[in-house]
Design goal:
- The protein has a five-stranded parallel beta sheet with strand order 3-2-1-6-16, with helices on both faces.
- Helix 3 crosses helix 5, helix 5 packs antiparallel against helix 6 and helix 5 packs across helix 9.
- The relative contact order is 0.14.
- The radius of gyration is 23 Å and the shape is globular.
- It is α/β, with parallel strands linked by helices and 514 residues long.
- The chain has 19 helices and 16 strands.
- The longest helix has 20 residues.
């Protein structure tokens, strides 16, 4: 393997992008990072060493050609770098912003030094290419019809690959606009929606057709749908009708069932799932809603859950002007560097601080919610007068123990206390696809994780019906969603044509390096 400067990792220190001042960030919705600069990017790309076996390929499920485009950036050959990047990744402008970069966790340089700033180099290449986006239309049309249900990263990646292979692709989305969690789950300060729109313009120019406010699947499981997920004027179409009208149906509906916190007080006003809060807040930012029905302005907010969704809520809460905010995590605070049981090249489980954490609030680790405490007085105009509204959470410290191979959380006696809260946001993850709708209508089999069961080729037990992304994998990262979208496209193309030239970066069920 050739690199532009084989001693670059000795000459240059790792640099991360600089965040804008907090006092500016919390008063607008713009992305938080300052421009990085071409010379700084070249220096970071130069740190990619002649490592022989680039383990960054193992960390990245897309198989991104990381050493190649690092070398091309160092040599100032951005057009070639962009071509190499887009050869394996449909949406590098999204992964460059949103992916936690497992490739950096497996960078060989990271064994005894700071890893290469792969994610930042990727973003700079992606932004260079995004200013020059051109549609890549198929040379020959096959007349094969493919319906894709869901417009998150997995569905969009599958759609673009299959459109470029010459198939007639229609993407169905039940929400008001295309993008899934990219649009309604990720706040503007992490992903300005103009970035998503310019990619959708390219996809439309290539021939992909988008249908919004259309919900596929008429089955019922008796379970409540995810509140507010569909457009108010949503139309319904049966999954069987799509099967009759199309050669293939690809299900990429995501893992959208929010995991609940089963403690007393769930019925109180002021307690909401994260997506109930984030979607209308994002709609206000994009101008499709005048005000959000759930606001943190002037409130004492508690976010239950210490992951990325919780951090998305945290940054949104700051910008809405909360009086106070606490973010709770049941796990203990992770170490500042790798523990002995967390060796390279696995993903480093270490303490991380996002831009939202820098902006304020208090993080509380090793704690569980025992009860939500309410009163009968209306607070701040939310809920009907006289209805019970949350006023505090009763908490208790916990210690984590591994019992018979399973992690358990043991309450610590004498640590109970109350924390003031008149807005509680539940962000403790997702438990799989919704059981009603398309899953119920088609009678799809679920696996032990609650995801749709598929074979190694992403096919369900129904002929011509495939599933991918979080719907089949369970809650995961954007880079895995794109990889699954690309892989299912290859399998669908093979199913339709008997052979395929589309890349297949992963197999269904393939696990991350850990």
């Amino acid at each position: 393997m050739l690199v532009g400067d084989p001693k670059g990792f000795l000459h240059f220190e790792r640099e991360a992008p600089v965040r804008r001042p907090v006092m500016l960030c919390v008063h607008d919705w713009r992305e938080v990072y300052e421009p990085f600069g071409a010379e700084r990017v070249r220096a970071q790309a130069a740190r990619c060493m002649d490592c022989g076996i680039p383990f960054c390929h193992e960390g990245c499920p897309l198989g991104n050609l990381i050493p190649e485009w690092n070398d091309l950036v160092y040599r100032d050959r951005l057009a070639d770098a962009s071509a190499r990047l887009e050869a394996t990744n449909n949406f590098p402008e999204l992964t460059g912003r949103l992916c936690p970069a497992p490739c950096e966790g497996s960078c060989v340089l990271g064994i005894n030094a700071e890893p290469v700033s792969i994610k930042q180099v990727e973003l700079e290449i992606a932004e260079w290419g995004a200013q020059r986006l051109e549609p890549r239309r198929a040379g020959v049309q096959t007349t094969k019809r493919v319906a894709i249900v869901g417009s998150g990263p997995a569905g969009l990646a599958a759609a673009q690959q299959l459109t470029r292979a010459g198939h007639d692709v229609v993407v169905y989305e039940r929400a008001e606009r295309i993008g899934g969690l990219l649009r309604y789950g990720i706040p503007e300060f992490k992903l300005e929606k103009g970035v998503l729109e310019r990619r959708l313009v390219q996809m439309r120019s290539e021939g992909t057709v988008f249908m919004t406010a259309v919900s596929v699947g008429t089955g019922s499981s008796g379970a409540e749908e995810v509140p507010g997920a569909a457009a108010p004027d949503v139309a319904h179409i049966s999954a069987q009708q799509l099967r009759n009208d199309c050669d293939v149906v690809v299900l990429a509906c995501g893992s959208t069932r929010p995991r609940d916190l089963e403690v007393p007080g769930r019925e109180l006003d002021g307690v909401h799932f994260a997506m109930e809060y984030l979607k209308p807040s994002n709609q206000v930012c994009e101008g499709s809603r005048a005000v959000t029905p759930i606001t943190a302005a002037g409130r004492h907010v508690v976010i239950v859950g210490g992951g990325d969704t919780g951090a998305d809520c945290l940054g949104t809460v700051h910008r809405q002007g909360a009086a106070s905010v606490h973010q709770l995590e049941i796990l203990p605070s992770p170490p500042m560097s790798r523990a002995a049981g967390n060796p390279w090249p696995t993903w480093p489980v270490i303490f991380r601080t996002s831009s939202a954490h820098e902006e304020g609030g208090e993080r509380v680790f090793g704690v569980t919610t025992v009860e939500r405490v309410g009163d009968s007085a209306d607070v701040g105009g939310v809920g009907a007068v006289g209805s019970a509204h949350v006023r505090s959470l009763r908490l208790q410290d916990v210690v984590s123990e591994v019992v018979e191979g399973r992690l358990q959380f043991v309450p610590v006696p004498g640590t109970e206390r109350e924390l003031e809260a008149d807005l509680v946001l539940i962000a403790v993850g997702f438990s799989g696809p919704e059981r009603s709708g398309v899953v119920a209508e088609l009678g799809l089999e679920l696996d032990a994780k609650g995801a749709v069961a598929v074979g190694p080729d992403f096919a369900t037990e129904l002929d011509g019906v495939f599933a991918c992304g979080d719907m089949a994998r369970g809650q995961s990262l954007i880079v895995w969603a794109i990889a699954e979208g690309r892989a299912v496209a290859a399998e669908v193309d093979r199913y339709l044509m008997g052979t395929t030239s589309l890349p297949r970066p992963i197999s269904a069920g393939q696990l991350a390096l850990r």
